[in-house]
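ARCHIVE CARD
SHELF: 3
SLOT: left
DATA:
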Amino acid sequence: PAPPPDLPPFPPRRSSESLKDQLCNLPALLDQMRITSSAAFGHSYKSLKHIVDTQPDEDVATTVQGFTNAHTKEIYLYLRSNYCHAFHEAIHTLSYPMAIASNFGLDIMEGLTQYFTDIIFTEQTGGPCTTHNYKAQLVCANALVSDFTRDVAAQIFFQGKFGLLGNLANKLKIKNSTALTAHYKNSCQALP
């Protein structure tokens, strides 16, 4: 069926195919992966986030499963991280995390990252990732994907096509793209 007249036509490709196209960049990204001790992991995280506290650096690994430097695309994991966490961090490097966070908030950014991680993880392992700490954020991402469609969400997430937001606002009968992004940002922050 043809798309509604108020939306541009999208390529008739499955979003998982679009994801696979992005994964061709993964080998170079893996060269940017840093797997370190809990102390070095914590120190790097605190340095990147400009955190100054008296807690031991090792304690960061109890709450942070991995992180990515958005500027350098370096992926940081600690020795006890798992395959799921590595995939999640790699997906960050293929997306527009700062722009997603700016438009939709950190919760949606993490939720969309986990949403697309789960698609790839399921294709690779037969099931979604279950060891992450993004369950509430994933609920938010699923609501957004349900409204936008997986293909449109993938175009925004992986290709930075934020120009689509105005058409989506019209389709969803929301005033404009600013009100659209505020809607998702606010509804996600309301979750526990």
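SLOT: right
DATA:
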Amino acid sequence: FDGEDDSEQPVEWSTRQASASERLSLLAMQPDDLDQLRRVFILWMKSGHPSKALTTLEQHQHRLLSDLSTQAETQAQTATTFAFMRLDAVEEIKDFPLDQYRSQLQGAMAAAEQWSQYTNTEYVWRDLARHAQQAQAFDLQEQILRKQHLFNTRQPERARYRAWDDAVLATRLGAIEAAKGNAQSARDFGHY
């Protein structure tokens, strides 16, 4: 996509996407490992076909996961990565049903919960909150924000930021209440 063109005239992005999509459609891709699957997924996403990216992921992930190490941390990380790839594809599919988006989000939350047992997943929860907002799943967004806050309160190095973390949580919960149309509740959280 970013390479040099042979022609002297600049090619429009949509033309590049169409060309890439046409070429991808001609190839019978069988990724041999998770990294190759991620690359094929990204190619479909960049070519403007998130539904094909999602289909590719769903077609190959189970086969490739069965070859994966039995190490629990690796499985949890990989499950979280796949869940986010699905969320990213779903987010780009125009008119994707919100209930199905919500279902994908719940799966990603479960994967993130598993992975958070092994590593700092603060950025994962932040991205989940963004997806919950996109899916208009405000109850899930609240759960996510509260889990992120709980995770932060368990980190000894964040002890001196406790008041900040509490204020951020209150502000975000207020924003959720405002998005739901609960003005008084939003004000109670300090959201004006």
